[in-house]
Amino acid sequence: MDGDRQIGSFQADSSGGWLFMSDAPIAAGDHQLSLRLADGSAASGEVATVVVPERGRDIAGRPATGSGGGPLVLLTPEQGRGASTVLQAPTTGGAPQTAAARVAALSIDVIDYGEGGAVIVSGRGRADATIRLYLDNRPIGEGRTDLRGLFRIQAGGAIAPGVYRLRADQLDAAGKVTARAETPFQRAAPAEIAVAEGRVVVQPGNSLWRIARRVYGEGPRYTVIYQANQQQIRDPDLIYPGQIFAVPAAAARPG
């Protein structure tokens, strides 16, 4: 469902897993996506906000760099516990990958925080393969991909706030590394958000989503802060402690 409008349907497999691909591209703008059973007996308790930029532009309306035409940003709000997730689809040059190539390649897609601050890493690789996680070359967790090639692994032990290099290795039956993916990772500490005189000083653990929820009561309105501070924010997923952002006192809702 996109708001109150049905945009498609699918059949879950025997394990309850599913993958939905829309028949037509989702139009530019903000969309509230949710699920419900076809017989109307149940609906998902979670609603995901998808912000789709216009072709060739980023979510702030500026010309996008690279050949991808701007990112697709998926924002999953908190449901009373845990933490919000920001997933930005990468842009790539050249011809689009086939579905088989996307599934075969190893990738780290989402880094999330669970209850108690546990770090959870999700991604995709070869189906039914062993995935081992490292933080600055220190092993922190291991798991397996499912039959669709998806994995979700919770890191073991406490991770102190700081900037690290997160790596995922895909192993074959003999323990040989067959694929590798790396990404920078900042383990943030939770912090209060203090707004004074229309400005906020970014603290460790802050995000545009959390600031917008504190100021406007709605995480998806982070775009208001982004647009007001475009000279400082190159990527809405990357803000840094010590930055000072203007926070408009009132702003119209996105159309």
Question: Helices, strands, pairings?
Answer:
Blueprint: E1 29-33, E2 48-52, E3 73-76, E4 85-88, H1 99-104, E5 107-113, E6 119-124, E7 130-135, E8 138-144, E9 150-154, E10 162-171, E11 177-187, E12 195-196, E13 199-201, H2 208-216, H3 222-228, E14 244-246
Antiparallel strand pairs: 1-2, 2-3, 3-4, 5-6, 6-9, 7-8, 7-10, 10-11, 12-13, 13-14
Helix pairs in contact: 2-3
Number of strands: 14
Number of helices: 3
Instruction: List segments where confidence is low: pLDDT < 50 over at least 5 consecutive residues.
Output: 66-73, 76-104, 251-255
**What's the alpha carbon Rg, rounded to whole Å?**
19 Å
Instruction: Please give the CATH class of the largest domain.
Output: Mainly Beta
Strand content: 25-35%
Structural class: mainly beta
Query: What is the second-level CATH architecture of the largest domain?
Result: Sandwich
The side-by-side strand order for the widest beta sheet comes to: 1-2-3-4
What's the CATH topology name of the largest domain? Immunoglobulin-like
Give average pLDDT, whole number: 74
Characterize the main sheet.
4 strands, antiparallel
User: What would you give as the CATH superfamily of the largest domain?
Assistant: Immunoglobulins
Write up what this structure looks like.
The chain has 255 residues and is mainly β. It has 3 domains: 83 residues, no CATH class; 89 residues, Immunoglobulin-like (Sandwich), CATH 2.60.40.10; 52 residues, LysM domain (Membrane-bound Lytic Murein Transglycosylase D, Chain A). The protein has 3 helices and 14 strands. The strands form 4 sheets. Strands 1-2-3-4 form a 4-stranded antiparallel sheet, with no helix packed on it. Strands 8-7-10-11 form a 4-stranded antiparallel sheet, with no helix packed on it. It has a 3-stranded antiparallel sheet with strand order 5-6-9, with no helix packed on it. A hairpin with a 2-residue loop joins β12 and β13. The longest helix is centred in the last third of the chain and has 9 residues. It is globular, with a radius of gyration of 19 Å. The C terminus is likely disordered.
